[in-house]
Design a protein that fits this description.
Chain lengths: 224, 511
């Protein structure tokens, strides 16, 4: 009886301690997917195109339309025949919505696009269009390569999360006060910081798994 | 003993960590409940609606600004502003005042400012920079101008045919702006919380553990420390018991605290001291009994033949009828020697008998100081100092026997001083706890260290005369009083005897 009770207890304990398993869904139970990944040569550079499905769940759309910016992240890896990563790139697109002017802004590394229709925002953010990777001259044209891509979305920035934590833990403080570094010390505030520490270190990110292309050779790729 | 410590530590661990699991579930459950109170679909719906309402109001506000701008631009009176460059007509100002705080700027076809008019202004209006204004001259339809007025303003553009264009800057009412922004902010907070609800609960729980675990570990460490503090003296007591059982009556446990454990240690030490005293007393009395039996037998065996020997020698001397004078002289000398030795033997027998027949103590309440004073009177010419404790009460002791004890000590002391050549004696009385202390000290020749252990034994003497029974009798009398006698002596400097007697009830020591 005792060993059984002990087993049940520990099973119960393990099940309860395993809260929040790793998230791989974009919400609404729809997993983010990478589709139509196509490498090709354009203007002498290796480029890749891909589509991303289910990047914007209803919850994330609601968050963006509340005025909070979300960040779409696309990570690309180029691997050689020995599976070594020879190129890596992280593309970030910040999507924000001006609720007063009712327009969306997509800010990339060097581009800013303003749109008024969310469907257009969704279409543009869910498409990677001939993104340059590296000049073919840097690669061995006879060797096989693979491209791996994964896409994800960070619905809430860390700064925003911290702001909410501060607001929740001490709602009487003004925004200006919260922004200030000059805070009084004390057990209560330290307790708040402790909670904030544990919460803010968790970054809520929704991401797909890694999607891998078939092996290809540079010389066999379609050229534009 | 280690089992007790293990049990204590295990109990402490159990007490410390057992409540963690129910508390964990309780805290988690309460947190989730409290979040559910503020975070539910109704609240989200209300916030969403409020946010949309704010946006719609803002949109209408812009539409109204644009409508008024277009209306003003289409009013014929506008022509007066351009042609006569006179003041803005009242009819235009009336339309403008319907918007609240607003400013109207008239530009010509080149984008140059022609005239301006404003309602009662509270604060300053944003500057309309040429790089923004100039391109508008080419526009031919009314619209809102973005990114000009800043967050508190809206700016509308409307062309004035054949004249130029007007820009209407309208300040958003501050109260509306603040409320709308608050609604949006709370809605955003709510949306953020939507993603962090789980993390927030987890954060609270982890914070709980981050605080609880160090406290728990600290209390366990303190528990281990205190359990050691408790069990270590117990281990010492057990060790002490074993040592005493093995015959080490000098073993004492170290008492470092004044709590119950310390009291136990003190009681243990006191018990061992008392037992040792009693044991010493019993041993002494047993020895005395043996010596007394020897003395009794010796006295009996020696005493009986003494009289026949003396009578025989006397007869030998008396019955001699010869004329040999030399022989007669020899006979008389020999009989005299024999008589002297017989007398010596009789003295020896008397002392033996006295030692063997020492009567039982006769206790009666008396003053020890009086007894000391009385003894002092026996030696009027000797240098004997007295120091009395006036607080010493009368108590029950055998006055005569204790008097004999003190006389014995004083007599020995005087002999010692005589041997040394000079010196003095001091006798003090005191009361310490439940005991009367009689302290004798002299500055005589002292007792060599190697014989200090033997001086209380019968028939041990450093003197040429005496049977060595004096200090044995002293020891016996003190012991039979239930007391103790301690010797401290340094050869050449002096001797000190400390006698402690119980000064309460009659002692119960039996042989």
């Amino acid at each position: 009886m005792r060993p059984f009770a002990t087993k049940v207890f520990f099973l119960f304990l393990i099940l309860n301690l395993q809260s929040h398993p790793p998230v791989v869904f974009g919400g609404d139970d729809q997993q983010i997917r990478v589709e139509n990944m196509t490498p090709q040569i354009r203007n002498g550079r290796l480029v890749v195109s891909a589509d991303f499905r289910n990047l914007f769940s209803t919850r994330i759309v609601g968050t963006i339309q509340s005025g909070l910016p979300s960040i779409v992240q696309i990570e690309i890896k180029l691997r050689n025949a020995s599976n070594k990563t020879v190129f890596r790139r992280l593309i970030s697109r910040r999507i924000s919505y001006d609720i007063w002017e009712e327009r969306y802004t997509i800010a990339g590394d060097d581009t800013v696009r303003v749109l008024t229709d969310f469907q257009a925002v969704k279409a543009q953010s869910s498409r990677l269009e001939k993104e340059a990777i590296t000049p073919p001259a840097a690669l061995d044209t006879s060797q096989p390569y693979t491209i791996e891509i994964r896409a994800g979305i960070v619905p809430i920035s860390t700064a925003q999360a911290e702001k909410v934590m501060d607001w929740l833990l001490d709602p009487n403080q003004t925004e200006e006060y919260l922004a200030s570094e000059n805070r009084a010390s004390g057990f209560e505030l330290n307790l708040n910081k402790l909670v904030s520490f544990f919460v803010s270190r968790k970054k809520s990110t929704y991401t797909s798994g890694w999607y891998k292309s078939n092996k290809f050779r540079i010389r066999d790729l379609k050229r534009e | 003993m280690k089992r007790i410590r293990t049990k204590l530590i295990l109990s402490l661990l159990l007490i410390t960590f057992l409540p963690v699991f129910p508390v964990y579930y309780l805290v988690k459950s309460l947190l989730q409940r409290s979040l559910e109170v503020g975070y539910n679909e109704n609240v989200e719906g209300a916030l969403q609606a409020a946010s949309e309402l704010s946006r719609e109001l803002y949109s209408k506000y812009k539409q109204e600004t644009l409508r008024v701008t277009k209306d003003i631009a289409a009013t014929p009176a506008v022509a007066l502003v351009y042609s006569a460059k006179s003041q803005v007509p009242e009819s235009l100002l009336t339309k403008l005042s319907a918007l609240g705080e607003a400013k109207l700027d008239f530009f010509d076809a080149e984008g140059e400012l022609v005239n301006s008019a404003a309602t009662a202004l509270v604060g300053t209006f944003p500057a309309l920079y040429q790089n923004v204004v100039k391109p508008l001259a080419a526009e031919d339809s009314a619209h809102m101008v973005e990114s000009v007025g800043g967050p508190g303003f809206v700016v509308a553009f409307a062309p004035v045919p054949q004249a130029g264009f007007v820009l209407l800057t309208n300040r958003r009412p501050e109260a509306f702006r603040q409320r709308a922004e608050l609604v949006v902010k709370v809605h955003q907070m709510f949306k953020t919380l939507d993603f962090f609800e789980g993390e927030l609960t987890e954060g609270f729980v982890l914070s709980f553990f981050a605080i609880y675990v160090p406290i728990a570990l600290l209390s366990v460490a303190l528990g281990i420390y205190f359990s050691r503090k408790i069990t270590s003296p117990l281990l010492q007591l057990a060790e002490g018991t074993r040592e005493v059982a093995a015959g080490d009556w000098d073993y004492r446990v170290a008492v470092t605290t004044k709590d119950e454990i310390g009291t136990l240690g003190e009681a243990f030490n006191q018990m061992i001291s008392t037992l040792k005293e009693k044991q010493d007393q019993v041993i002494t009395l047993e020895k005395m009994a043996v010596w007394r039996e020897i003395a009794r037998v010796l006295a009996h065996e020696i005493k009986n033949p003494l009289t026949p020997i003396q009578l025989t020698v006397q007869q030998m001397k008396d019955k001699y009828a010869g004329d040999d004078q030399e022989y007669r002289k020899l006979l008389e000398e020999c009989s005299e020697i024999v008589s002297d030795e017989i007398e010596n033997l009789r003295t020896l027998v008397r002392e033996f008998s006295e030692f063997a027949r020492m009567p039982q103590l006769s206790f009666a309440s008396a003053d020890l100081n009086d007894m000391v004073q009385e003894v002092r009177k026996l030696y009027p010419n000797d240098n004997i100092a007295l120091k009395f404790d006036p607080a010493l009460p009368e108590f029950e002791f055998d006055y005569e026997k204790m008097r004999r004890v003190l006389i014995n000590l004083v007599q020995n002391g005087l002999d010692s001083i005589l041997e040394k050549g000079s010196g003095d004696i001091e006798i003090t009385t005191a009361k310490e706890g439940g005991k009367a202390i009689l302290k004798y000290s002299d500055s005589g020749s002292g007792i060599p260290e190697d014989i200090q252990q033997k001086i209380f034994e019968p028939y041990f003497s450093t003197k040429k005369s005496g049977m060595g029974l004096g200090l044995a009798i002293v020891k016996r009398i003190v012991t039979e009083h239930g007391g103790n006698i301690f010797l401290t002596s340094i050869e050449g400097q002096g001797t000190e005897f400390t006698i402690s007697l119980p000064c309460a009830a009659k002692p119960q020591i039996k042989e």
